[in-house]
Amino acid sequence: MTSNADQVMIFDTTLRDGEQSPGCSMTQPEKLRVAKALAELGVDVIEAGFPAASPGDWEAVNAVAREVHGPIICGLARCNRGDIEKAAKALRDAPRHRIHVFLATSAIHREYKLNMAKDEIIRSAVEGVKIARDFCEDIEFSPEDASRTELEFLAQVVEAVIDAGATTVNIPDTVGYTVPHEFAELFRYLRKNVRNIDRARLSVHCHDDLGMAVANSLMAVVAGARQIECTINGIGERAGNCSLEEVVMAMRTREAFFNARTGINSQRLYPVSRLVSSITGMPIPRNKAVVGENAFAHESGIHQHGMLKHASTYEIMRPQDVGLSRSSLVLGKHSGRHALRERIRELGFAIDDTEFARVFEEFKILADKKKELFDGDIEALVLRSEGSNGGPWTLAGLETQSGAGSARATVRLTHTDGRTVERNGEGDGPVDAAFKAIEEATGLRPVLRKFELRSLSEGEDAQGEAIVYVDHNERSYRGSSATTDIVESATRAFLEVVNRIESSQKAQAAA
Ligand code: KIV
Ligand code: ZN
Question: Is the predicted pLDDT of residue 2 greater than 70, yes or no?
């Protein structure tokens, strides 16, 4: 290990750019849960959202600023006073906070999106940075679509915003257009041609449209970037952003080559990746680098033989370095608190006593139904969001009958306002019938867009996870649930969606 390696900051934008990706929206409790996990992972900056985008976004950024300790908490703003003031107010409770202002600089954006000339862009960028400086000292500026901006003009913008007080200048490859060598040249150009470049930290922000976000980010580091913007599992606009786990493990595995390191606790990568996947419903491809199910699986005989002789023959990272600790140990109904706590710890999750009490209670219920509990079962219990079954509706009873091509279901629901409602539904199958019964009981009729089922562990009595995606009043919602009965899982997942719709209607009415 080199000891004089430069420190590269990790700026996580899962809650902002990641959350912008279709189908990845998160509720406020979910955002808080992810933000706390990111703090434990050791990221330097959490971009918690875009406060001016909606009251919900403002609330979420404010909650993260108040409750998440350790990293710098950042909020995005366009270069106008309204946005910047909203961001500043949302962030003010965080002991260390940053305002991130952005404005597009490329000819395409200037002409078609902004209808602004070059001098207007510079004036507006400088003005934005100066307004933000009135509220805090840590200011980041991003020239959106920088990789398609004329180099000379980009250098002028960068120099002007640093003079205005920007402490970080982030260079986005907004549309994932650049290639590694070209991007490194861009960074070298800025370092050579911007007079005051040493007064700001250079940052990189890449999208993955051509599958090069990680490679482009690494080349920016080679050329002098000292902050990488990235997201867990690479989620983000369109094809996504630079994947945090990949870029971090590339730097860790090849530290001597990059002569740079991050402060990430790599053993927390796998659990955080699972958490984000479970909350957003965005699955992790089996062959995904670093955190995919197959990332450390060796199938061919030659590889297995090599591995048995020495793991380094075919493994450049150890599974435990990314927090992957699979065990053949099986827990059951006789397993006690200590064994469960230990297994949760080995799986890389850090949960507090209240959360553990909930997990232990659900573990006992599950162990009564299922003889053996595998890692997948334990992981599902831990990842299950506390808020997911938090009402207002709770499933108090479910009965189904089905024959060839038709089914009937009866659901009994209780509401936090004290009502108990029982309704029947008919459908093509028991799941369809149960959804109809819930619609009758709650009066909500979301449009079902997608329904997924998957097994969480092994064996005939494995838990089946159901994921339901619906649209309602131009918004998308997602719900999931896992039990040993797939009809019950589907019914609970649908009820979660209904609960989310009702809660969001209530929040909108209160706003
Ligand atoms: O991709 C992009 O350009 C952005 C900026 C707001 C940094 O996300
Ligand atoms: Zn982006």
Answer: no
